[in-house]
Automatic annotation (TrEMBL):
Gene behind the chain: agaF
Organism domain of life: Bacteria
GO cellular component: cytoplasm; membrane
Name the record gives this protein: PTS galactosamine/N-acetylgalactosamine transporter subunit IIA
Pfam families: EIIA-man (PF03610)
Organism: Heyndrickxia oleronia
Length: 129
């Protein structure tokens, strides 16, 4: 099973997980870290490290973040250099994260390819015909 850490600005992580839980149920090996106003990057990094340690029994871990270049992404990227089994993804949306909950038993490369596709396909524009 692939471990998941979800982090983002404000209550992005806890809010998105609330939606996922409503649709797919409670998830195991799934850590949620909100980067709240006033929290330092060092504190966030410590929380991310703790989440990685909580999932250390798993072969692979993916950190899902909101914005590339944002603090949750940057701190996760730094930790991925130290922990070779950690991958970091930005631009997380609900379809991508929901799909990830059902594909956690495949190889990490297949997992990343499939969920990236789900994230892209999950974006639609409604047009009145």
């Amino acid at each position: 099973m692939i471990g998941i850490i979800l982090s983002g600005h404000g209550h992005f992580a806890s809010g998105l997980y609330s939606s996922i839980k409503l649709i797919a149920g409670e998830q195991e090996n799934f850590e949620i870290i909100d980067y709240e106003e006033g929290m330092s990057a060092d504190t966030l990094s410590t929380k991310l490290e703790g989440a990685i340690q909580n999932l250390s029994s798993l072969k692979d871990i993916v950190v899902f973040t909101d914005i590339a270049g944002g603090t949750p992404f940057n701190e996760s990227a730094k930790l991925s250099v130290v922990h070779g089994n950690v991958r970091v993804l930005s631009g997380t949306n609900a379809p991508l994260l929901l799909d990830s909950c059902f594909k956690r038993s495949v190889s990490i490369d297949e997992f990343m390819d499939e969920i990236m596709q789900s994230g892209k396909e999950g974006m639609k524009v409604f047009k009145v015909k």
